Amino acid sequence: xxxxxxxxxxxxxxxxxxxxxxxxxxxxxxxxxxxxxxxxxxxxxxxxxxxxxxxxxxxxxxxxxxxxxxxxxxxxxxxxxxxxxxxxxxxxxxxxxxxx
Length: 100
Hints:
Layout: E1 2-10, H1 15-28, E2 34-40, E3 57-63, H2 66-73, H3 76-79, H4 82-88, E4 89-97
Antiparallel strand pairs: 1-3, 1-4, 2-3
Helix pairs in contact: 1-4
């Protein structure tokens, strides 16, 4: 089992475009033995302390194997909508971990 945490930074004014991409990408996760465990859009007062830019959204996803995640990234349907991701996301940080 692998766990992926993604901090997503959306370009101002491109939130609707980002949501269009997520509407396609998120349902595909389960096709590749993955599960979206958390999708959080933190409010301003949710941050107690920080030393990095505040993300627009935080995702926590698990996949049975790393190979499943790689297949998800190469999904043909998802690739058709990557232009929406590129248009809307200014940066993202992907952190891979495992359950202790």
